[in-house]
Amino acid sequence: MSYYFVIISPTDSPLFEHTFGTSKAGGDGVARFRNGETSRYMNQFIVHASLDVVEEVQWLNNNMYLKHIDTYPPTNSHISCFLAGTNVRFLLLHQPSTAPTTSSSNRSSTISSTSVPHNPTSPQTEEAIKQFMNEVFEIWVKTLMSPFYRIGMHIKSPIFRQRVSAAGRKWL
Amino acid sequence: MTSPEDDVAPVKPAPPSLSTVIPLHVAKTRSPERDESPQASTASLPLRTSSPPASTPRSSIGISERISRSVSPHGRISMSASRMGRSSIASPLSSYSDTYDDTRSLIVRSFSPAVAIYASPDTDEIARSKGFKNGFREMVRPFGERVTGKVVVRDSVGSSRAWDDFGVRFTNLGEDFGNDRGSMNPKYGSPFTRLEELLERYVEMPSDGLDTYSSDGRLMRPDGTASQMSPYYRLFLSRLLSATMFSPHETFLHPVACVIAISSGNEAPIETLRQLYAQTAQGSKVSPSFVNPEYLRYYVLVHDEDRDDLSKSKALFEQMKRHFGIHCHLLRLRSDECLPSDDDSVEVPACEWLSPAEDLVRLNEIDNLIHMDIDLSYLFESDVTALKSFVRELVAQSVIPHMENRVAFWNDQVASRRRGISGRFMSISKKWTGFGSISSRNSSSQSGSGSGVSGNYDSLQGIYRYDTPEALLRKLADYAFLLRDYKLAASTYEMLRTDYGNDKAWKHHAGANEMCAISNLLNPMATAAKTRVDGFDQMMETASYSYLTRCSDPQNALRCVVLGVELLKVRGRTAAETAAKWAIRIQELGLVGAVGHVLVSERVASCFAAQVGTSSGAFSGRKRKAAFWSIMAADEWFKLGKTELAALRLEDADAFYGSIVSSEGTQHFKEMSLFLEQLHLAINMKNASRSRNVSNVSNGVLEPEEEASKQLTEETSEQLSAPSHRRSMLVADNLPNTGLLSPGRLPRPDPFPHEDDDFE
């Protein structure tokens, strides 16, 4: 599973972007998107396009975590969303690895069929992403409290990035 | 609004939202000789049909108009059409209902009754002497595609409806009987691959080739509205719909009637007619066991005006009438070949519903004969009038009454019994064994009836015999569908779905599901009442799965999904969402090739765009998605080398992005905007260099398009960020003046390799 996490401002500009791979089931934490190099802009397109759905779903749901909201079938990408204050949106694009059964050995395939790395819509994944989002939200709030940060600014803090990737390692 | 030429809107009780006023603008570029309406001949027909004179000339010119009218040079199209793209976004409601009528009419017209032609050799000889080397059928075929005047059809509840775009499909009798069973046919799937081949041919053609062929200014309308259906997609759709193969699981291609034709040159006319009839009944032309052989026989005497005596022919015709009853026609034709230089020559309209294979053959012929001007054939005006009135009489007085009759009969005898007992199959099949005549079938159906399986299905061959209730019901449903009585058709397909499923007749099952969904979607009454999108979704799912996985029949799967997408697209938010999902599914399942892939991408974009109009103010609809898919389409067009089309799609995308309020657009997504800029730049460069080549050829005259694109190029390159900046500026400056670079080359290769997109 490969992940692309982005925080998007109310005016659709990205405040923070982070690309990482799974660390569960022997993953090394490096993103391997199936569309290779094009994923750099394709992921942005996909996430940007799913804002349409976010804008619709956010009025139908009382929770901050909107769960899995959109898919992009050609690359098998799934998008989950978390709404933070002031209409800042956390979007996580997750893409299961290309061939889940061939890459994993017999031993792990029996276990991992329902675990996080392979099934993007399973309840386990939803739960893991929820934990991840909550943790990132916490870090984000702390970052906002910095006297040098103004709302709408790009988040450049290396500490923030470090913590987000730590959260990613922990949950996804 | 319908386009003026080909969709003279059917008189239908349109749903209120779609019932826009249809302005009767008769096309203005009509050549005078086509104005001749065949009123004189149709007026003499018995007034079963009310044919207002006003509609006759209009519909009669439809086909030839489409072919002969060409559009302005392509550079100009792309400029103005893109402007229209924006206007269509501004008022999406008007534009989508417009294209919906267009699409709907195309779909409705593509399902037309098949009339087989069985002509005696001497009749074919007359046609050959007139320049139709494939005989009588080739001559009448274009005239069958649109019957002159209104055709009145009574539906099952007895209400009449007049259609002025009714048509029939002339086939050669027995031509398809050989390769009947789709799954056992060695040539299986070939129309499907040919479709892709054909699309590639069209795309590779210089763009004016397509414009004259089928676009007919679709991107550019006189009234300023834009159609979102690209000419290529329209072509794709119509060729896909006419690529249908003769198959046991649906009866659309099974003959409804057979025209048995002899000519006045025949020595023993009555004897020949008998022989021909005998051939259709038990001879070489006998239909396979799944085709209902009780089709109508229609006898035609072709009188040769140039060689034979009319009084003799009239006497013979009288004799024919006595023998064969009312289903006879005397067709008076001249046997001399008509030259374009003749006074009263009329161009023969081209066929609209060519199958991909036929179209390829046609294109090859055009390629071979590029220097000679014998592409179009001509007929005398009197012949055209005679053929038109023949087709009209055939359809209005024989074919349609016959079909209505069968529908009423089967509805009464088969369907209503089924409905009354509602699912208790056992008693039904017992009742039916008394009715039928084949004893072997009786025993098998009784033995199988216990388990809810009718046993009528021959699983070895994958067919139902024509006289089993299942086959008759399917025939009934198909007839009702062809007569555009979608309510009856839908309810019958609904019934069949379960039957076929019980029998594990998978292809039939898929077909029934497909047609059930489509006829429900086509039924104008069901629009408001029940928009159960889930139901359609389910049916499409079953149909495509059965077609593809169980029967490995990608062509029918593609047809099913494409039709579903087209018809679902306009049914509000959720339906459009489903349509988009299915359109993407087409790509996922790999049902289309490279060109088809782009066309489908465009379609996805327009599915999302359609939702923009239906959404209320609070939501922005699906603008970002529409823009995204437009960009994908642009990228793919660009890779195929069609930069004009790519530029159009990009314009669309920009318009979509621009229309999102409360958004700063895409500029802050770094890679994304970089990609967009590069795509813009590359496309503009190519366009600029192309129009420069064109203008160089035409004596170096600078055309306004080039100026525009040159300007555009420079503007774009100025916005570029540091690394690409210098080089592209250099190129943009050099390009119009010295042309240091080869014009085809891109200024800067895209940094990201496109080939490994891996969309499948």
UniProtKB/TrEMBL annotation, chain A:
Start-end of Low complexity biased regions: 97-115
A GO cellular component annotation in the UniProt record: cytoplasm
CDD domains with a match to the protein in the record: TRAPPC2_sedlin
Biological process (GO), any one: endoplasmic reticulum to Golgi vesicle-mediated transport
Disordered: annotated segments: 97-124
InterPro entries per the UniProt record, alphabetical: Longin-like_dom_sf (IPR011012), Sedlin (IPR006722)
Pfam families the UniProt entry points to: Sedlin_N
Protein name: Trafficking protein particle complex subunit 2
From TrEMBL, chain B:
Signal peptide, first to last residue: none
Listed transmembrane segments: none
Biased composition (Low complexity): 40-72
GO cellular component: TRAPPIII protein complex
InterPro entries: TRAPP_III_complex_Trs85
Superkingdom, natural source: Eukaryota
Region of interest (Disordered), ranges: 1-98, 693-760
PANTHER family named in the record: TRAFFICKING PROTEIN PARTICLE COMPLEX SUBUNIT 8 (PTHR12975:SF6), TRANSPORT PROTEIN TRAPP (PTHR12975)
Protein's name in the database: Transport protein particle subunit trs85-2
Protein's organism: Endocarpon pusillum
